[in-house]
## 1
Amino acid sequence: MKEINRRDFIKKVVVGGAVLSLDSAVFFKPMQAHAWGKYDIGQCKSVRIKCVSELICNDSDKFLDQVSTAGGWFINQWEIPFDPNNAVGFCSLIDMETLDGRHHKFLLDTGWNAKYIDTCFKREGIDRMLQNGEIEFLFVSHEHMDHLWGLETVLKYNPKIDIFIPSTFNPEGVEFIGSAEFNKSGAKNKIEHKGKLVKIKPGEVNKLFDGCMAVAFNANSGFRVQGEESLYFNVKDKGFVFVSGCCHQNIFTLVDFAKEKIKGGKNIYGVYGGLHIIPFGSNPRYKEIVRDMAKYEFKKIACNHCTGLPAIELMVELGYPVVKGSGRFGSKSKLNIGNGDEVVFG
């Protein structure tokens, strides 16, 4: 796939397959596999990830009670009367460096409570990065409230930012991005999105930069949300790094996709983000899942959010290379990368 020359870039949008080119980045249409059956996404130099916020909510019991009262996990999330004071959410800042020394910064998810996320943005300087265009785009892993509903804060600082979403988004999610309020759930975005909305179809390999690709998966994840997209980085001399919001497709599907379809995908380095193993202490299989992760021989495990503290504790017990955090800014544990913490792959 030939790269568009940055000096001759043209602004095009892509919804489901065309090319999007920006002044500071070039995006590729979905790749075609080589004759030998695998995709070659190239390599990057490093990936630095700052955890802006990783908690789902302040009080898990209160959250579960609200969900149960509303009718359970199969209820439309846009109709559940959530307590905004209990909302927190997941958001991370990614800074990848290409082999030629260029840096590309982008946000992974927006958190849930817009006011809380605004505080986090100011703490980490993300408000200024958005305002001056240093952050190139927003990558929304999936439609759940704790990954999307803080969008208004992002748009407050840059309404023209380009946004990547899975093509499986519900109409409510797309409407919310454009500007909408859902009074029953408390979800609101009063700022019109003026940038490009790019939809990624499940199963396609989308090369964003050399050494960086995005893949969407068809995964049912509760609250009538379908689909999740994840990021893959191929770090030179290290191997693949897998970055997820919640990994509803499961860790094995995430990693095996690279092993089976991407050149060098069997060379595994690290993982960051939520793995949805035991988010609320309700998965009797979590020990089996954690033990089965040993086959990948990760060199760095920097999981948080919905991975679940019991799962991370077991990883530590088994001697996995877990990257620990500081326990600052409201984080519940020092065992995982928490709010304000950073991990570098490369």
Note: The radius of gyration is 19 Å.
## 2
Amino acid sequence: MKTDSTQQEILLLTGTSFSNREWCEKISGDTNHLTSKEQLEEACWNGLLREILPEIYMLPGSQKKLFIWQIKEGKSFIELELGEIPGETDEQLSINPYLFLHFQSLN
């Protein structure tokens, strides 16, 4: 019997005023050597996403918990993959432009 699990992708654009904020309170240790993209990524691993986008973790009618399983870097964004369990992303349904644009050219 197949069970359904929740998978989510989130793109956080870099090079914006949002991504250039100081996330020092969510990053442990010395961050002077990190780029702003790396600082944002580190802050997401340390719980920033739950604070800035709490609605992502509130699944209607469900007590399921979502976890960040992977963070991928793009040229102008970071992609966060969340889910109850680690899972494969369907490239045709992904919001990652490097994945879905390939399929657009095939149509």
Note: The chain has a mean pLDDT of 78.
## 3
Amino acid sequence: MTPLQAAVLGVIQGVTEFLPISSSAHLILTSRWLGWQDQGLHFDMAANSGSLLALIAYFREDLRTLLGAWMESLSALRSRSKSGKTGEMSDEARLVWLLGIATLPVAVVGFLGQDLVASAARSALLIATTSILFGLLLGVADRVSPERRSLDLAQIGFKAALIIGAAQALALIPGTSRSGMTITAALFLGFSRSAAARFALLLAIPVGLLVGAKDLADMAAGGLLREELPALGIGFALSAVAAYLVIGWLLRWVREHTLTGFVAYRIVLGLAIIALLTR
């Protein structure tokens, strides 16, 4: 992989990872359209790690608060088990537990369906189809009963977390978009755009850690060549910078705008892929 290829794919990964437009689809299609060899597991891991680092850096204060509250909840649970008394859990600790619950479906589906995702699910026609269909679904969720979408993060419950997590599991199919599916499900459940986007981004952290752990194990089994390091470094750095900028922009955007632009982009992307396939 040349430095130019690493730079282009790193930026694409960072820009598209947290927007509801599917990063995997853009990476797969960019390599195919430009005639580049598949970037491979090692580059995917480096670029994904860059995006994850950006996410952790952006939410560092929130994460410090959430993890502190969660540790306190563990101590409180141990004390209650000894005393037999029950007590209230803070909103922050509760959110951490719900993020864990929402992560379970993608962990299970990812383990069971990894062979499908790695082969048949990477077809250009499937990417075009999922881009259009789930883009339209996002548009419907964004338009249906907007006056009722007033729930915030503190109002997410066990059932909602499980439903959002199940929707997220569909994003293992390229073209679907992990953030797109989580935001769509949250909107249908009555959450505001801001709450839906924020939960989707926070949920990307445990999912990213799981994916990173698996990729690291696969990389350790296959080995790493020294000549790969420059390209991996470029992909990691540019993905991190691009993702950090996009996260802040997205959270500002959803406070004042609809998601129509993302829906239109997904439809145009899907139609363009189909047009290229039928030429």
Note: The chain has a mean pLDDT of 86.
